[in-house]
Inverse folding.
């Protein structure tokens, strides 16, 4: 399943821009992060799901060298050499996600020179649904199909992550890219970012997710994201010294060990680590809860996750807190900020037969608090694919 409307529109824009139909078309979905906030780069585990919104990427052969890329929503075109590692100027920052992917593919001998490209997405920008990873993954899938080459899915995810780290300037983990690649219909993706293994986890039939967007724009590259990552690395190092063993990442520290030693390390690093270490614990306990059908208990972990996001990691903002509290008041099973934070959206778990009612009540409560969010049901969807 893919967003047929956005795929049709992207191909139409490509035809209008370049005067020819694309020969290769790919699609990659965005994601919601269900549980496992900031655990990926700490070599922890996550629950996520691909969603029914994403990016479409089109390619056709050009008679000019290099790459021309058009952003379909703003009808702006940038040009670049895919084999150089120079970033594009700030005006074309959006094209760096594409250039980064093509550069790293070229380093592996997968060269797509002399092409015209168009992309278009249905993911609201700044909503925290990982439009950037969807674009990176769609680019990789399209270039691989166009050149008739293959890469292991894990390699595609790692390559897309490198593009975001080094060309877009956000030192993110692999959660977003893996979610876009490995998505499954009506299921969660459980990812282990130490082993890089993923497996699907079925959702109970009687629950759905709501995505509530208060429309607070954000970009992770301009947020404290990178600083939080440095704090986590500092906490891991200092906890290792206290424990007298190698702690490669916060994944290596149990809740009990952390509680015994957190007061002996840098206070700020300990504060940030509180969220991550408890979050890794919640994901692992959540696997068992879902297997046992204990959906209400699993939902409570979403509320708990948001609370440590708010108090320990400080990556929430007032608008997201209002939405989470509104979801709780309206009867959601669980709710939390989804994604890096400092903006974006809230993911809420609700009973399917109450979804519309809860959705409307959340909006009304939020309006009374001075914000006007939009809300919609999210359909857990299949991962990236080549359409044409």
């Amino acid at each position: 399943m893919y967003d047929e409307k956005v795929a049709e529109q992207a191909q139409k824009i490509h035809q209008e821009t370049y005067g020819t139909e694309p020969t290769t078309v790919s699609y990659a979905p965005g994601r919601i992060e269900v549980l496992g906030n900031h655990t990926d780069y700490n070599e922890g585990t996550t629950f996520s799901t691909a969603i029914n919104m994403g990016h479409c990427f089109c390619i056709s052969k050009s008679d000019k060298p290099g790459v021309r890329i058009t952003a379909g929503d703003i009808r702006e075109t940038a040009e670049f050499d895919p084999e150089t590692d120079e970033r594009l100027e700030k005006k074309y920052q959006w094209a760096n996600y594409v250039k980064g992917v093509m550069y790293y593919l070229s380093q592996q001998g997968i060269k797509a020179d002399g092409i015209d490209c168009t992309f278009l997405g249905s993911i609201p920008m700044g909503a925290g649904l990982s439009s950037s990873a969807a674009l990176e993954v769609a680019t990789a899938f399209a270039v691989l199909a166009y050149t008739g080459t293959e890469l292991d899915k894990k390699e595609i995810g790692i390559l897309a992550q490198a593009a975001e780290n080094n060309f877009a300037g956000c030192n993110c983990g692999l959660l977003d890219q893996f979610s876009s690649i490995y998505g499954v219909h009506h299921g969660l993706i459980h990812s282990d970012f130490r082993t890089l293994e993923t497996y699907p986890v079925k959702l109970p039939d009687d629950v759905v997710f709501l995505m509530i967007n208060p429309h607070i724009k954000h970009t992770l590259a301009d947020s404290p994201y990178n600083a939080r990552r440095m704090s986590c690395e500092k906490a891991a190092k200092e906890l290792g010294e206290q424990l007298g063993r190698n702690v490669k990442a916060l994944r290596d520290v149990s809740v009990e060990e952390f509680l015994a030693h957190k007061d002996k390390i840098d206070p700020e690093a300990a504060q940030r680590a509180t969220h991550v270490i408890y979050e890794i614990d919640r994901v692992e306990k959540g696997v068992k809860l879902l297997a046992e059908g204990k959906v209400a208990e699993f939902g409570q972990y979403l509320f708990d996750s948001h609370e440590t996001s708010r108090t320990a990691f400080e990556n929430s903002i007032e608008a997201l807190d209002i939405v989470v509290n509104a979801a709780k008041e309206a009867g959601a099973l669980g709710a939390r900020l989804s994604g890096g934070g400092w903006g974006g959206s809230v993911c809420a778990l609700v009973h399917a037969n109450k979804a519309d009612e809860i959705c409307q009540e959340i909006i009304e409560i939020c309006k009374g608090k001075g914000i006007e969010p939009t809300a919609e049901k999210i359909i857990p969807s299949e991962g990236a694919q080549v359409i044409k």
